[in-house]
TrEMBL record:
The protein, known as: Zinc finger protein 706
GO molecular function, one term: zinc ion binding
Keywords linked to the UniProt accession: Cytoplasm, Metal-binding, Nucleus, Repressor, Translation regulation, Zinc, Zinc-finger
Compartment(s) where it occurs, according to its Swiss-Prot or TrEMBL record: Cytoplasm; Nucleus
Species this chain originates from: Capra hircus
Coiled coil regions, renumbered to chain: none
Amino acid sequence: MAQPRGQQKIQSQQKNAKKQAGQKKKQGHDQKAAAKAALIYTCTVCRTQMPDPKTFKQHFESKHPKTPLPPELADVQA
């Protein structure tokens, strides 16, 4: 028995909405993983992670001014 076109349309919309929600959920997880992978510099004092040496040096100078600068940050221009 054939379904009326209105009912078929509603089912199709529900199916499409569910499919798109699944894709968004998958993308959100990938973005989190990519963001975490980008945090490659870890502060030796407080273990905070940063994406680049410039940010790392700025963090170190503002948060740990009495601690000597790590040798890997000596030549970084902030």
